[in-house]
Amino acid sequence: MLKIMIPTLMMLLTTWLSSTKWLWLNTITSGFFIAMMSLMLFNMPADILLLTNKWMGLDYISSPLLILTCWLFPLMILASKNHLKNNPMNRQRTYISMLVILQAFLILAFTATEMIMFYIAFEGTLIPTLIVITRWGNQAERLNAGTYFLFYTIAGSLPLLAALMILNNHFNSLSLILLNTFYPMSFSLNMLMWAACLLAFLVKMPLYGMHLWLPKAHVEAPIAGSMILAAVLLKLGGYGIIRITFLLAPLMKEMSYPFIIMAMWGVVMTGLICMRQTDLKSLIAYSSVSHMGLVIAATLIQTPWSIMGAMALMISHGLISSALFCLANLNYERTNSRTLILVRGAQTILPLMATWWLLINLFNMALPPSTNLYGELTIIISMFNWSNWTILMTGFGTLITVMYSLYMFLMTQRGPTPHHLIKMTPTHTREHYLILMHLLPMLLLMFNPSLIFGGM
NADH:ubiquinone oxidoreductase chain 4 N-terminal domain: which residues (predicted)? Predict the structure, then answer.
């Protein structure tokens, strides 16, 4: 673990000591070296917890999410280069430093074996993300979006802190390894603990009804903020749910029913909301809520197949939603507009970019044999096994996903090209490389999807 954590922290020195000319190249290269080192974690045995010290460890659930975090870091810097080129050099260094600090907190969160350390890292991700959104966002509404993001997250996390204090008083330990062996508490206390522990993660995912902060944060965030929000920070909520539900599982199966119903209802509702969006980034943000609804339902029913599907869908969605935000940003940099009706007909001007749009939308709608399909199919089967009625929601949600994915592709790429797009600047090698680095892991994982099945 230290061979990933220490180079990540050393990147702060790289950022501030690199010359102006080599700043971006040095940080991107260092990020890719860390990403390549993290790939070794795929070789970890599936049936053990790899402890590096008393407070940090890895297992088959946290290692794919950690690799996803490390892989996306250099891509975030690569995507931000054009956005920051006119900023003073100190602001560019500060921006990259915020991303480095965010990655360090995420590594701590995914490797923590002490619940209080996990909570500190979980909350710590809020600070650099908030700074990136409110300082480098595109419009004045970014302050409003930052306020929503801050207060929703804090309001959801306070009950988790109180619950952890009660657990510590009850068991004199917050170690994930020891808590698994303890006898459960009384039923009434366990009910409160269950609700308090899960609230923070359901807001972070987010569950439909607690999702109002997400579209605002996504729309106003710069490209790196949108990528890290969609790809990793939402998965932090899913990871927390998987960890907590295993601790409080024995008495609390019935408590999850209303949340599963809300999650399934959210899959359909947010899909329908996507169908009437005029803002491209808002459409992609609502599609994330729809996909995460499936993950919430799967993690709460706690069967091996559902956890397997949730892990596969989290990793696949992380790469695909990040790629969609990159493509939306490439459109925005050329047209200065996210309105779908104003960016039509781009296929005739940028044909290779239209190919990327098509491929990524096919992955987003879970076309065979993508890992999105593996994830969604295993979740749908496990949900059907839990209750036959869920097939109505999951089937309808899958149909709507195909509809809004095709709608997004047709609205951005087909149709008559507006006159103001005729003189659009051509695409750069950097941008094609950025999208390829999102698609390459997806194509490789199709040959061995068991790597992201959580060892189930």
Answer: 1-109
User: Is residue 130, in this structure, part of any structural domain at all?
Assistant: no
Burial code (b: 16+ CB inside 10 Å, e: under 16) for 127-137 equals: ebbbbbbbebb
Q: Is residue 239 part of a domain?
A: no
- What is the SS3 string spanning the chain? CHHHHHHHHHHHHHHHHCCCCCHHHHHHHHHHHHHHHHHHHHHCCCCCCEECCCCEEECCCHHHHHHHHHHHHHHHHHHHCCCCCCCCHHHHHHHHHHHHHHHHHHHHHHHECEHHHHHHHHHHCHHHHHHHHHHHCCCCCHHHHHHHHHHHHHHHHHHHHHHHHHHHHHHCCCEHHHHCCCCCCCHHHHHHHHHHHHHHHHHHCCCCCCCCHHHHHHHHCCHHHHHHHHHHHHHHHHHHHHHHHHHCCCCCCHHHHHHHHHHHHHHHHHHHHHHCCCEHHHHHHHHHHHHHHHHHHHHHHCCHHHHHHHHHHHHHHHHHHHHHHHHHHHHHHHHCCCEHHHCCCHHHCCHHHHHHHHHHHHHHCCCCCCHHHHHHHHHHHHHHHHCCCHHHHHHHHHHHHHHHHHHHHHHHHCCCCCHHHCCCCCCCHHHHHHHHHHHHHHHHHCCCHHHHCCCC
**Enclosing domain of residue 406:** 257-456
Note whether 311 and 355 are within 8 A (CB): no
133 within 8 A of 149, measured Cβ to Cβ:
yes
pLDDT bracket for residue 250 (50, 70, 90)? low
CA separation for the pair 419, 397 (Å, rounded):
37
Amino acid symbol at 224: A
β-partners of residue 368 are none
Measured distance CA(250)–CA(456) in Å, rounded: 20
Kindly indicate the confidence band of residue 173, based on its pLDDT and cuts at 50, 70 and 90.
Answer: confident
Domain tally, the chain: 1
* pTM of structure: 0.93
Q: Who contacts 265 (Cβ-Cβ below 8 Å, separation ≥6)? A: 208, 393
Any domain includes 392: yes
Contact 270, 393 (CB under 8 A): no
Residues whose CB is less than 8 angstroms from the CB of residue 198 and which lie 6 or more positions away in sequence, other chains included: 241, 244, 245, 259
Please write the tens of the pLDDT for every residue from 234-246: 889 999 988 887 7
- Contact indicator for 35, 103 with CB cutoff of 8 Å: no
300 token code pair: 């709460």
